[in-house]
Design brief:
It contains seven helices and 17 strands. It is α+β, with helices and mostly antiparallel strands.
Length: 410
């Protein structure tokens, strides 16, 4: 028989106490772990909240900056802004126009001289670069400097031409002759109220000659118009003499873009084709009308009345003489006021004259016509277009032309 296990009361109490301590310890450890997890979770939450708060603060700052800029824009005077923009646009346009004028003045200077003008080309290039960079003030200064140098060279050329003319006068024409030739070609000095000028001219009698106007184009041409040299006009019409015609827009000029080699004034060529009929604004421009055995000058081309029974007509500015009186007065156009070869068509009785007054303004050319005893005279194109033909070029050849006045035998 097995003996019974007998537990003593003190031992039981001790075991119960140990069991209680172990349980409490486990509870504490579990609580610590739980609290630690909660603390970590709370820390992460705080970090996330802090990040969101920072982002919110940055957004608020951006909104405040945008709001401030918006308020600034609201306070700005749009009228003033528009005015400033308009002024800047005007300045750009004006400086561009100045660049075009400078370039065309440079081209005209090159037409008059064989001198090396590389320094002026360089100055023009520098001006254009400044303009492209929108440095308008600096560009304007450069263009002014360029124009001044061109003007100085023009003055020098005029002085040299006058000196050369005086030397020729001493050698070839010790005394001036104010009587125009009865027929054919003449080169003579003419004394006038404006001074003494060399004149190259050709005379034709309307009893034995006809005067016609020929055009390179068969009809009105607004742009990219055909042109011919004066020699080609003479050849294809079997003419014995000829001269350049009306003002036109040379293809080399920037201001002529979109209207290259075109002319605006009224004209009827030898084929009875009427040019620029819709351009009535030019009906007030002076003209010369050529008929069979007669010639007529009018102060307004509208006085012609579009009569197609005539041989030809051509209009141009300005009318130098009418009825034996000087009618031309300077109009402020710097091109007409500068010195150069001045082409003309004139008459004295039944004789018609075409020619060039050398180194003169348009106003001086009118005084020369008066001194020659012309009854009527009309100014023609000049500058690089100036050309006179009689058995060869007497002046020129000049650039190719959209129209020309020709003498042919009847």
């Amino acid at each position: 028989m097995k003996p019974k296990l007998k537990l003593h009361k003190p031992t039981l109490k001790l075991n119960l106490k140990l069991l209680t301590i172990s349980f409490n310890t486990a509870v504490v450890v579990s609580s610590v772990i739980t609290i630690s997890a909660l603390v970590n979770s709370q820390t992460q939450a705080i970090d996330k909240f802090t990040s969101l708060a920072n982002e919110h603060q940055n957004t608020l700052q951006e909104l405040q900056s945008t709001s401030s800029q918006l308020e600034t824009v609201k306070k700005e005077d749009q009228r003033i802004i528009n005015q400033n923009l308009q002024k800047e646009t005007d300045d750009i346009q004006n400086t561009y126009k100045s660049s075009v004028a400078s370039y065309e003045n440079l081209l005209k200077l090159k037409e008059k001289t064989t001198e090396n003008l590389d320094s002026l080309d360089k100055l023009y290039t520098e001006s254009i670069i400044l303009l492209s960079d929108r440095k308008l003030s600096e560009a304007s200064v450069k263009f002014s400097e360029l124009n001044s140098q061109i003007e100085n060279k023009e003055t020098k050329l005029a002085q040299e031409a006058a000196k050369a003319a005086a030397e020729i006068a001493v050698k070839e024409a010790p005394s001036a002759n104010n009587t125009p030739p009865g027929s054919g070609y003449s080169r003579q000095y003419v004394n006038s109220e404006a001074g003494t000028f060399l004149v190259s001219m050709i005379a034709a009698d309307l009893a034995s000659s006809r005067v016609i106007v020929d055009t390179a184009s068969a009809s009105s041409c607004p742009n990219n118009c055909p042109v011919l040299s004066l020699a080609e006009y003479v050849s294809r019409n079997n003419a014995f003499a000829g001269i350049n015609g009306s003002y036109f827009c040379p293809s080399t000029y920037p201001s002529c873009a979109g209207k290259e080699n075109s002319f605006d004034t009224l004209l009827m060529n030898k084929d009875k084709t009427y040019f620029n009929s819709d351009n009535n604004v030019y009906s007030t421009v002076p003209a010369v009308i050529f008929g069979s055995g007669w010639i007529r000058f009018v102060s307004r081309s509208q006085e012609w009345g579009r009569d197609t029974s005539i041989d030809s007509m051509i209009a141009n500015q300005g009318l130098l003489m009418l009825g034996g009186n000087v009618t031309y007065e300077p109009d402020g156009d710097p091109k007409k006021g500068s010195k150069g070869g001045r082409s003309f068509v004139a008459n004295r009785g039944n004789s018609v004259y075409i020619g060039v007054v050398h180194n003169a303004t348009v106003a001086e050319s009118a005084r020369v016509m008066k001194a020659l005893g012309m009854e009527n005279a009309l100014n023609l194109d000049s500058g690089g277009s100036t050309a006179l033909w009689n058995g060869g070029y007497k002046v020129g050849p000049g650039r190719s032309l959209p129209n020309a006045i020709l003498f042919i035998k009847k």
